[in-house]
UniProtKB/TrEMBL annotation:
Annotated coiled-coil segments of the chain: none
Domain ABC transmembrane type-1: 41-327
Superkingdom of source: Bacteria
Any single Pfam family the record assigns to this protein: ABC_tran
SUPFAM superfamilies per the UniProt record, alphabetical: ABC transporter transmembrane region (SSF90123), P-loop containing nucleoside triphosphate hydrolases (SSF52540)
Membrane topology, record value: Multi-pass membrane protein
GO molecular function, one term: ATP hydrolysis activity
Transmembrane segments: 21-43, 165-191, 267-287
Name assigned to this protein: ATP-binding cassette subfamily B protein
């Protein structure tokens, strides 16, 4: 929290420090499109010289006209028309360059947004599950996402900044030759506006940063308030009023906060602009006086007045843009911070080769696990071995720690205490990809990909996405094949309602599709975490019967609340408040007359 507060109060030093992000940012832009970036720079250099050249030619034209008035010669007239021709070409060139620059900016912006979105997705994929479950992490991810689009503006602003600086160099040189004090006058007139801008930008940034969690909530409310997945429940519970109210309360607060800053900013901005005008007209009066006295020609008057006016506009936009650029650079810190988040679960330097086949199995040694930011142990004192070829069932009441245990097996989390051994060595000593490659796991909250039937199955082993034979075989094994036959487009049927021609499946049908994923890879351990809860009793029995048959010789962990399924397992682990209450075969546990027997009889009675 302390850190957040310091971030919210940005000082000029923070701004300047944030500018250090720019080289890394430009590197990223360069990687997005090197050719486009180079072209952009060259075009801007060319464009930077044009305002000065236009003013200079304008001055020459006026002086030439005045000279012709006094003393006409055809040579001088030809010269005049040549000058007009040059000005015309410059004007056309300027317009063309502006358009080309805008085009380059927008194309480069698109390339950058695509490139960074990919980078974010790639990086997010390397991070740990518990990092995704952390609100602070989500805020960072959210801010990093915003950067992908918002930062394309930063790009064109920094480029414009450089371009304007060059233009200023040209114009200022002209002004200095005439009277350097004019430049000072200019800076004094502009400085208050700059300081004001930077103050308000800081406030806006601090506000926007503190609003991030609420903005995520707004997005969430917008999503549940209007989405195909939520519509049914929202309607039935008549929740829309509740959601809309919450949305309104939050968004009204946003509006009021933002309005407060915008109004203040606009009032002060008007005052500062007035100061700028006073400075400009002071200089203008001075130049006119000099011209009246004959110290300057009319051409020089237009050149200097024009230079001064343009310098003012340019300086104003440069200074104004400085706060936006440094602002952008501060936002960039969020972006780079996201890339600095390192996964805690990663490979050791020299991972062990994965045993194939596994000889001793997985051994839990005093394993305990607590979720991030949680006081409670989700699993504790786990001591048991999952033996090769064994089918193990996990039972226990809701929240007993069954899903957590299988997530530990797949190293989605590492134990908080104790260790899990595979063939005698800590799971952490094996290559993470190898481990996951040898484990097939289907979660209770598996994803319903809004993709084709075939892709939904191939998700289990995406390297084999074109292996139709394997996909069909997996579908047959999970009993999803029957379903494909009924779909209008068979295996190419789009599933879900999100995209056109999509067909929605029933909960049980989705589960059959998901289970097929488990058969897509030749895993040594298959884990089914309640993916059959929506199947009818007969279907679940069939699925598990097949499952036992197909995974003969392999290890399997099943989680189910149905005892008819659970009893098929070789051994059953009964979990209670994260700890092992009992362990043994169906018969042993019944004979023992403990918790399992009690739960079994409870369910059996329910079926009578
Ligand atoms: N991502 C999480 N972050 C924090 N706590 C969690 C998380 N997931 C689960 N828990 C907590 O850990 C405990 C064990 O949860 P787990 O999902 O392992 O139970 P389960 O036995 O699979 O339950 P169910 O039968 O309802 O699926 C619960 O008290 C739950 O509140």
């Amino acid at each position: 929290m302390a850190k957040r507060n310091t971030i919210n109060n940005i000082t000029m030093k923070d701004r300047l420090r944030a500018l250090r992000n720019l080289p890394a940012f430009f590197k990223l832009v360069w990687q997005s499109g090197p050719g486009m970036m180079l072209a952009n720079i060259l075009l801007r250099f060319a464009k930077a010289a044009i305002p000065f050249l236009l003013l200079l030619v304008g001055k020459l034209i006026i002086d030439q006209v005045l000279q012709l008035n006094r003393n006409h010669s055809s040579f001088a007239e030809v010269h005049l028309w040549k000058l007009v021709g040059v000005e015309f070409v410059l004007a056309i060139l300027s317009d063309g360059l502006s358009r080309a620059i805008t085009l380059m900016d927008s194309l480069l912006g698109d390339l950058f947004a695509n490139h960074t979105s990919v980078r974010i997705m790639e990086h997010a994929a390397t991070l740990d599950l518990d990092q995704f479950e952390d609100a602070v992490f989500y805020d960072k991810l959210e801010r990093a996402r915003q950067q992908t689009v918002g930062r394309t503006v930063l790009l064109s602003q920094v480029m414009s900044q450089i371009q304007d600086l060059i233009t200023i160099g040209f114009l200022a040189a002209g002004l200095v030759v005439f009277n350097p004090w004019l430049i000072l006058l200019l800076v004094i007139a502009i400085l208050p506006a700059f300081l004001g801008e930077s103050y308000f930008n800081d406030e806006t940034y601090a506000l926007s940063r503190s609003q991030t969690p609420h903005r995520r909530e707004l997005d969430y409310l917008r999503y549940i308030g209007a989405s195909d997945e939520t519509a049914k429940e929202i309607k039935m519970f008549s929740l829309s009023g509740f959601i809309v109210d919450r949305f309104k309360t939050l968004s009204d607060k946003f509006y009021v906060d933002n309005k407060r800053i915008s109004v203040k900013r606009s009032l002060w901005g008007t005052l500062f602009a007035l100061l700028g005008s006073v400075g400009y007209y002071g200089a203008y009066v001075f130049i006119i006086q000099q011209t009246v006295k004959g110290a300057l020609t009319i051409g020089e008057l237009t050149f200097l007045a024009g230079s001064f006016r343009q310098l003012r506009t340019l300086l104003e936009s440069i200074l104004g843009r400085f706060t936006t650029v440094s602002q952008g650079a501060i936002y960039l810190s969020d972006f780079f911070e996201f890339f600095e988040i390192e996964p805690q679960i990663h490979n050791t330097n020299q991972p062990r080769p994965f045993p194939n086949p596994i000889k001793q199995g997985f051994t839990f040694e005093n394993v305990g696990f607590r979720y991030l930011n949680s006081e409670r142990w989700a699993n504790r004192n786990l001591n048991f071995t999952l033996r090769p070829a064994e089918k193990l069932a996990l039972v226990g009441e809701n929240g007993a720690g069954k899903s957590t245990l299988v997530k530990l097996l797949a190293r989605l989390y590492d134990p908080t205490e104790g260790r899990i051994l595979l063939d005698g060595y800590d799971l952490r000593e094996y290559d993470l990809n190898d481990l996951r490659q040898h484990i097939g796991i289907i979660f209770q909250d598996f994803l319903r990909y809004q993709m084709t039937f075939s892709q939904n199955i191939a998700a289990g082993n995406i390297d084999q996405k074109t292996n139709e034979e394997l996909i069909k075989r997996s579908a047959r094994q999970s009993l999803a094949d029957e379903l494909a036959k009924k779909l209008p487009a068979g295996y190419n049927q789009m599933l879900g309602k999100r995209f056109s021609d999509g067909v929605e499946l029933s909960g049980g049908e989705w589960q059959k599709v998901a289970i097929a994923r488990a058969y897509m890879r030749d895993a040594q351990l298959i884990i089914l975490d309640e993916p059959t809860s929506a199947l009818d009793a007969r279907a679940e029995f069939q699925v598990f019967e097949r499952f036992t048959e197909l995974t003969r010789g392999k290890m399997a962990v099943l989680i189910s609340h149905r005892f008819s399924t659970v009893r098929m397992a070789d051994r059953i682990v009964v979990l209670d408040k994260g700890e092992i209450a009992e362990i043994g075969s169906h018969q042993e546990l019944l004979a023992h007359g403990g918790r399992y027997a009690e739960l079994f009889q409870l369910q059996a009675a329910g079926y009578q």
